[in-house]
Design a protein that fits this description.
4 copies of one chain form a homotetramer. Chain A contains 6 helices and 17 strands. Chain A is of the alpha/beta class and 319 residues long. In chain A, the strands form 2 sheets. A 9-stranded mixed beta sheet of chain A has the order 14-15-16-13-9-12-11-10-17. In chain A, strands 2-3-4-1-5-8-7-6 form an 8-stranded mixed beta sheet, with helices on one face.
């Protein structure tokens, strides 16, 4: 084996996502009161929100915009040198945009797009969270006190986007950023229906799902983590009592086996509450590749999704 | 079998308990902010608090007092005729006090004491809860909306009191009120260490625990129900982060097998968060009677309690 | 209130059900290996099976038959006198059949039919379970050791049957046996779509669901209890890995809020694994009565059932 | 930042542990019948056992020996090149032993010892599990069918060993293998009481705990993973019913916040059933370093361990 065959291990983890909302006050209330997140900062038309388990200052940047959708996805590199290597590689790839000085809570970031034209950034320098007095936790190894308000999500777990070209996006992330595909669903026509990608032992950080109709990809959903499936079940009760539309779940995903619950936040974006699933420790195993037939005939617990799950994404397309 | 052998089935269930606190504001904050109860009414030095699953207006009357402890225990009779029968029997027993006109949320009640002199009342007429606009639930068969605030206890599950004469109290409740003992622990000297009593298939509504030192019984704890053991585990995290002293648990009780977590509320009273345990359907089975040896040698998961569990009750005694 | 207004409290609980199967060996394997029940006795073409939490010897009588379906439903009376009273009332009702000497594990039983002609029996005298050496539990207040085999259901929780005349059946059970309806769904044409009935604080023991097509009612399902929703989720994994068809769930029921999972056992009968739900303590409250519109517009978590749930019952009708 | 400051990322994960037992038949029955593992192979005096979630053939090598304890710990390198790099570094460290040809299920391994003289090996080439017919799972992305037997552990999660020199061992693993310390407890005398180390985002794979009395380290415990805390609670019931001594738990650990249950297997080794805890995503954060005072004053849920937890390890020392 040559050095060329060795894995790229420069990206540490998914750091945060920017969500666009045409209803900023209502979306903010949803994330604070129902999901139980904390407002850590605000700047211009954006507020920065954290789960109680974020070591960085936030995992969600919520930005007012004319339509719902995804602003950008941010990754944190493992080291300054790792960041330099990725920036160089991205520049060579032709998809680099260039450096920005940073944003609330983190330092210089290199911006680029995936083959769909979706905006990403990767950075290394970060501010580790310092809780204010009323959020100081009981134990030294907690980042923040639990408030007991709402669902109490721990962190952003993954971002799921739709794409007219899942394979190209998957291969770009593998080649330039070291993402590994854990599961792939292949359509009978040879295209890929979905790809589940991660840089850690958790089964997914980034997911691409096929969308034939659009000429460029959209946001399918952001997923926030809770520690137990019981909390996902409890979240469903809370959503129902607060008039939040439940699109699907709670139930078990076929890929990765995680437990899901999908709702729409007031700005129109789909949000998942998730837990469970398995960690995947094999550092160099082949991905699970499903044929259409295999996937549709052995869905977890025999269950599929409502039609909207395959058609609705943000921003919505004109009918 | 003659009619005399037939069970008395006049009491429907434990209805509410009155808790005394020398720190009314702090106790109220504990029950509202941490346990997630709603203040349904207030009157004089008392506030009336409910869990989200109470069909009556409240299950806890919190009353300012010089020392912590128990005010009274209230039971609801199955019917007006059942209430009359119990009032007559209690009067004949010599432990009757007499009728009161009622209290917030319920009608005429007959007051009496158990052999320890502890105050009880039994009533039938009640007001079923009507939620205000902001607490109207999503479904017709819910009493109240979930707020997502704090632990979110459903209801008062049982009252546990200490007694110098467990057997006398147990027999009084069996004879005059139709309570059934599900489990009894007998000391080697023939006295009873504990008795677990219920009028329903749930394993306990009233528990008497031996207390040698006192000349009359005190409050050991009030127990509030959550639907899952996971919520008990989550409650422990919330208590710790809010500086509430955790005395014991989360763990499994030996009698009834329920899952427990004990803390002290700011007024000094011990509060249990409980879930699980088994329902007991046998309508005429003998209670489980443990000898001291049997009980101590087969504790659930091999675990006992800290010393304070056997000595601390409210009001505290002078050392 | 006169004595006539007082509730009938003579029936203690649902005791067991007889299930008919055309595939006795495969059905037995399903209940023993997958559900984790114990074979307590066998007699003729029947085997008697128990959950680990049954105080009686069994909760399921599995009987070989040409077609799947329900054999009979057995109720246990609270006392010998209670049994006599119910037998007299049932005889007067015109639906009495008469006494049988008993069956494995219980004494004399009075047999009768509901308005659909469905066979019931009620008895009082019972044999309390004595575990063989290999099933002796660790604690005095357990009926049986946990084996760790399969799902490990605790007991039969309820029986759900289809009926062309739900209202007549509900009123018969209320009038003659003291069952209380906790929830009723009314169709716009005035007929009842479903009725949830119990003699205890648990929300259902007997459920009737409307079936227009048949001229007499059939079995919709038997439900077995596990202590946690997590065990229901785990059961779904086990069923899938063992090739058992999952029809619906895991999810939350609208009535009673219990958590469900429906599968078909090898004999063709629908079986539910259930947990959760709420206890209903109000001894004399009115049932929740849903209109069609109310029921369909506020389903728990917004979810309905697959079409087979409304059409499949046992024995299957000819297409 | 220079290349010297970059993290070593050559080790993929903890692969398996070899456990020594003087009671091989009883230990095997414990792991198969109670923990629900599968016997994948046997060779000489060893059997190789797997959890249902192992991608390799096994995670536990159980070997007959005169006394209980640890045989060796095996790590899997990310690539062939990574293995070469670690072998070279270990050789230079003076703690290298040399190559072995492999063992059941994996290829050439480089053996070495930690500063306590404890045997480790690191390898890359592995056989991915191929289930026999009766263990083929329902879905393509499962490694093995769930059997429904016993607890059903998914995999080996961590190895915890005692050491007279925690700091030296920690620094050796950091320097030569790229392990990161997530949490460290420092004694007031400057020595380290414990170190929690991992090469992935899961909080611990290897744990060293101070043992003053011994001249070289022993095995504190092996920990096996289940997916939910509810399964840990259920495991406690199963252990108690099967007469397995429960030493501590179920409860929450202070470091990493995982949920624990400790028992002794028939050979005398301590075994943990664990779930929960948090993932730690910060790729270059400083470890949490507790002083003695900080650690003892803010234990999770206020709970400590029984004295045996600090004194018992395998092989037991002479009293």
């Amino acid at each position: 084996m040559t050095a060329l065959d060795e894995p790229i291990l420069d990206v540490g983890h998914l750091a945060h996502a920017e969500l666009l909302t045409p209803a900023p006050a209502e979306s903010l209330a949803f994330f604070v009161d129902i999901l139980g997140m904390e407002q850590e900062a605000s700047d211009g038309g954006s507020v920065y929100l954290r789960g109680f388990g974020d070591y960085e200052r936030y995992c969600l940047k919520l930005t007012e915009a004319p339509a719902p959708g995804l602003g950008h996805i941010a990754l944190r590199a493992r080291s300054a040198a790792a960041l330099e290597r990725r920036a160089s590689a991205l520049e060579r790839s032709g998809r680099g945009i260039g450096w920005i000085e940073g944003d609330v809570g983190h330092g210089a970031a290199y911006r680029f797009t995936d083959p769909d034209g979706r905006l990403f950034e990767v950075y290394h320098e970060t501010e580790r969270y310092q809780p204010p007095e009323h959020l100081v936790p009981a134990m030294l190894n907690q980042y923040q006190k639990r408030t007991g308000r709402g669902i109490g999500v721990r962190r952003l777990e993954h971002v799921n986007v739709t794409s007219p070209n899942v394979r190209a996006c998957r291969e770009f992330l593998e080649r330039e950023l070291g993402y590994r595909a854990l599961e792939i669903i292949e359509l009978d026509d040879g295209r890929e229906y979905g790809a589940w990608l991660s840089v850690t032992v958790q089964g997914h950080e980034l997911i691409y799902i096929h969308e034939g109709a659009a000429d460029h990809g959209r946001l399918h959903h952001l997923a926030f983590w809770v520690d137990t499936r019981e909390e996902v079940l409890g979240a469903a009760d809370l959503f129902q009592d607060h008039g939040i539309f439940i699109e699907a779940g709670p139930a078990k995903h076929t890929p990765i086996h995680s437990f899901y619950l999908y709702v729409y936040e007031p700005g129109g974006n789909r949000i998942e509450i998730t837990s469970g699933g398995h960690l995947l420790f094999d550092p160099d195993g082949a991905p699970t590749v499903w044929t259409q037939q295999q996937y549709s005939s052995s869905r977890a617990w025999g269950r599929g999704f409502p039609p909207s799950f395959d058609t609705y994404a943000t921003p919505p397309t004109q009918a």
